[in-house]
Write a structure and sequence with these properties.
One of its GO terms (molecular function) is metal ion binding. This is N-acyl homoserine lactonase family protein. Belongs to the metallo-beta-lactamase superfamily. Keywords: Hydrolase, Metal-binding, Plasmid, Zinc. It comes from Yoonia rhodophyticola. It is a single chain. The chain has about 280 residues and is of the alpha+beta class. It has one domain (about 5-275): Ribonuclease Z/Hydroxyacylglutathione hydrolase-like (Metallo-beta-lactamase, Chain A, 4-Layer Sandwich), CATH 3.60.15. The protein has helices spanning about 15-20, 75-80, 115-120, 135-145, 155, 200-205, 225-240; strands at about 5-15, 30-40, 45-50, 65, 90, 110-115, 150, 160-165, 165-170, 180-185, 190-195, 240-245, 250-255, 255-260, 265, 270-275. The strands form two sheets. Strands 1, 2, 3, 4, 5, 6, 7 and 15 form an eight-stranded mixed sheet that branches. An eight-stranded mixed sheet has the order 8-9-10-11-12-13-14-16.
Amino acid sequence: MALQIHVLDYGDIELETSFLVLGHECGRTRRVPVYGFLITGGAYPIVVDTGYRDNAIMESLGMRGLQFHDNMIENQLAKHGLKMGDIRYVLHTHLHIDHAGKDDLFPMNTTVVLNRRELEFSVSGIMYPQYPKPDILHLVERVYEDDAMRFLDLELTGAEEIMPGVWCEPAGAHTEGSMNVIVETAEGLACICGDVVYDFNDQIVKHVRVNNYMEPQVTGNHSGSKRAEKAAFKKLMNNYTFVLPTHDKGAKVEHGQVVGRTGMVVPGPLTETLPKREWFPM
């Protein structure tokens, strides 16, 4: 069976728009989704990212959490006929507050997989309080339990396979230890990229305050250089058929351009098809 990716809806958060795109609409509040992903069709199901712990914890960042009963991870998995204990691996694009808040609901024989540099970065004090104490302490506890944690060293290895058709690569953006999850689908490679991309429209389709036609706009929340973030974005746009971020609908990409937006299953029908942009020499 070909691998499929199902979007898990963990609720929404309200935050300032300039958090998503650097300097854009400062002071304006915007509501965005928080997605996780379920990979099926392989030897066992895999979850990528687990959302935020509860609504109250988002207040530590000055944000509002909007998570309801239907958004609970166990209820999202139940829609696919799965229980928490059925998941073999939980992969993390990174460990920010809205990505690793429900790991403690999984049994210790579910292996959490992350880039070793990301756990190191999470306890370094940089970008605090985006790494909440209860989330990170739970992951430290997992280090000392057999099979509860698997570390990748992607800066050195370049890529590591999780199971046939699923592997991880260094993201090169957002946080020092962020990683992308690559899935081989029937229609091409899909990349689950976490927060390397926040908003396709404002960053690339109708990008704001950028005068070069295919130059991406950077986010307002990154730990590395702006140049590195732009390069990571360009890599996504030039190497994958589907690009799936955490806070925006996924995109189908052809020749470096967004040509459609994905629904709740990838591959699957597009919810919106965009016209290809034609570029002419000056």
